[in-house]
């Protein structure tokens, strides 16, 4: 009898071997600006047993797109919750530090919005490094430094004038 799905006879697009098998995988996958997204829950895809390349069948792309986006939302939500709990700061404060609007942050916290790659990386930095959170304060020491440097420049300028 003929294999109905014919999956074993699919050729690997990378190495050309006929060793594609349905395998549960967490990736990582490239998605939009993200170079590597590891899934939260595994997805079943054809995978080359020889080189590890994934084979995307019709219908897989949409399914994969959905689980990758859900994973990014889940990571963002977790990072936002981690930072808020650790720093005991308000969502408005965190949004200012991350350079995003409070509405956007709220969407990330509830898992209803997907962060872009840049915001994702800022959140990742703030979530993993408490020092990064400290220096990210828009009204903090960085401003003081800029102020004193501006003052130096001003004084230098005055000295040249007189
Ligand atoms: Zn292969």
Features:
two-stranded antiparallel ribbon, binds zinc ion, single chain, alpha+beta, 52% helix, 434 Repressor (Amino-terminal Domain), 3-stranded antiparallel β-sheet, 5 strands
Spell out the helices and strands N to C.
EEEEEHHHHHH
Main beta-sheet strand count, sense and barrel state:
3 strands, antiparallel
CATH architecture: Orthogonal Bundle
Strand order of the largest sheet: 1-4-5
> What global shape is seen?
elongated
* CATH fold node name: 434 Repressor (Amino-terminal Domain)
Q: Mean pLDDT, rounded to whole units? A: 87
Number of domains: 1
Strand content is 5-15%
Q: Can you put this structure into words, describing what you see?
A:
The chain contains 6 helices and 5 strands. The strands form 2 sheets. The protein has a 3-stranded antiparallel β-sheet. A two-stranded antiparallel sheet has the order 2-3. It is elongated and about 80 Å long. The protein has one domain: lambda repressor-like DNA-binding domains (434 Repressor (Amino-terminal Domain), Orthogonal Bundle), CATH 1.10.260. Helices cover 52% and strands 13% of the residues. It is an alpha+beta fold. The chain starts with 19 loop residues before the first strand and ends with a helix. It binds zinc ion (ZN). The site of zinc ion has 8 residues, from loops.
């Amino acid at each position: 009898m003929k294999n109905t799905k014919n999956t074993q006879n699919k050729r690997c697009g990378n190495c050309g071997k006929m060793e594609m098998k349905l395998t549960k995988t967490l990736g990582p996958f490239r998605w939009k600006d993200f170079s590597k997204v590891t899934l939260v829950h595994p997805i079943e895809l054809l995978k080359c047993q020889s080189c590890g390349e994934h084979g995307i069948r019709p219908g897989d792309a949409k399914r994969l797109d959905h689980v990758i986006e859900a994973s990014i939302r889940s990571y963002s939500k977790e990072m936002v919750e981690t930072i808020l709990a650790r720093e005991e700061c308000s969502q408005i404060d965190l949004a200012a530090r991350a350079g995003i609007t409070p509405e956007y942050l709220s969407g990330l916290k509830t898992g209803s919005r997907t962060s872009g790659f840049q915001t994702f990386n800022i959140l990742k930095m703030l979530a993993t490094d408490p020092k990064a959170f400290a220096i990210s304060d828009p009204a903090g020491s960085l401003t003081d430094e800029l102020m004193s440097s501006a003052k130096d420049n001003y004084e230098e300028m005055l000295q040249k004038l007189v």
